[in-house]
Amino acid sequence: MSRNKIIAIIVVGVIVVSLIVLVWVGLSQMIAPRYGANIGIITLTGPIEEEEGGLLAPYGITPELVRGLLERVEGDGRLKAVVLRINSPGGAVAASQEIGNMIKEFEKPVVVSMADIVASGGYYISAHADRIVAQPGTLTGSIGVIWMHTNLDGLFEKLGIEVETITSGEHKDMFIDPLTPERRQIFQRLSDEAYDQFIQTVAEGRDLELSKVRELATGELYIGTQALELGLVDQLGGLNEAIEAAAELAEIEVPLTMELAPPVPSLLELFLGQGSILWELAIARVLGEEMALLRTLLNTYPMPRY
Amino acid sequence: MQKGILEISMGVLTRPTSTIRSICQERPIGWAIVVYLVVSLVAALASIGLGDLEFPEGGGLSPAFLAGISILLIIGFPIISLLTLAVLTAIWHAVASLLGGKGSYGGLFSGFAFANLPAIFTAPLAVIGLLPGIIGVLLVGLGSIGLGLWSLALSIVAVRENYAVSTGRAILIYLLPTAILLVLLGLLVAVVALPIVGGLL
């Protein structure tokens, strides 16, 4: 047998085996589970942000991501409930509130299955679920607001930049200037307001007395067993218990699950998208590391975070 | 030439220049169509693994209906792709003739059809794409770029051998329709879209 024939046989063999694998995997993943499944599982991991990160930045939880995945569950007549598997330390206030509202208004039963940590904003988005299941060792709670104000004076001085600000409106420069006692009070008021909104949401979502939530909303973390005692979660357990809970809420006799995967980012997004390693390297290369840091700090207004 | 389809295909992959030269001279259009359809069919099936083919979301449709739509998509893709190749070849043939190239439409069509052969490797590539996480995306992305460049090089060889022109002229012939299309699109934007946008502002 000639060398070419052997290569041809190997190539044809590889193609045929690949096609068999692809058709088998494709049909089993894309068609079959849709007809058996009745509970959707959505995994949400990372910080809650308005925009997702790039290749080396963690891919976080964004309102756009959650909306897309919930719409898929909503539009699929066979899926009667959804389990949200969450692992998140929290994040931006408005993004957390937007996701929280989506869950609140979602028409099918929603069960949250807490992983290692579901704190602060992570707990905020969980609060409106129909049931919360946490592991005994899950860290949750951290009901509070944090607001970090960066004083850029030292960096400006190091870079030889002298900034003079002209403002209309007494406190227009409150984000960049050092904190005065008066401005500290303004920030405190804003932080308190965001904190009250958090407490209100937890009280409403968990059907707890406002005063009780206020008592435990010290910003501290609670371990799963404590969270159960405090009424922050409904039961202890893992994903299987959460699926059972979803089945019970949706009156499903035999729960069959289907994982809804988030869209895979394209190569272009991974390498060139905002926040990607190449993007950040290019910025650092063009501006220099210190200027790149300054740019990041100036672009990131000190925002309250859950 | 009078070789079997497997031998010609292997020749395209291992000895591209001489094989494509004889393809352009002997114009095995029947084999070219068969090879193109098979490669496109494999690419369409591979697209299931790569998730490129959009399957309709459930919404009360029966599994049989969905399976039917899927099969129609997989079969329809190679046929539409073949018709597109026939039309595009005519454009390239016209451009090559205008630039002084002397060759046949059939030779170029056969050359282009066989130049698509590397796309058959999208099947094993799609299997690699099943690897979880970024590594799968990365390998599929790089592999797709590699296969695309391989096909592109074979297409340019087909133009060069069919019209007996230099490699530089073959590249010019190959890229000119794309460049003209871009210029036309630019003009369209300038003439139609800009005044509309300007009016809105």
UniProtKB/TrEMBL annotation, chain A:
The keyword Lipid metabolism does not apply. PANTHER family: PEPTIDASE S49 DOMAIN-CONTAINING PROTEIN, PROTEASE 4. GO terms for molecular function: serine-type peptidase activity. Pfam families: Peptidase_S49. SUPFAM superfamilies: ClpP/crotonase. Gene3D superfamilies: 2-enoyl-CoA Hydratase, Chain A, domain 1, 6.20.330.10. Belongs to the peptidase S49 family. GO terms for biological process: proteolysis. It comes from Candidatus Hakubella thermalkaliphila. This is Protease IV. Keywords: Hydrolase, Membrane, Protease, Serine protease, Transmembrane, Transmembrane helix. NCBIfam families: SppA_dom. The chain crosses the membrane at residues 6-27. Residues 106-252 form the Peptidase S49 domain.
TrEMBL record, chain B:
It is found in: Membrane. Keywords: Membrane, Transmembrane, Transmembrane helix. The keyword Transmembrane helix applies. InterPro entries: Yip1_dom. This is Yip1 domain-containing protein. Its main location: membrane. The lineage of its organism: Bacteria, Bacillati, Actinomycetota, Actinomycetota incertae sedis, Candidatus Hakubellales. Residues 10-187 form the Yip1 domain. The chain crosses the membrane at residues 29-50, 62-95, 107-128, 134-159, 171-197.
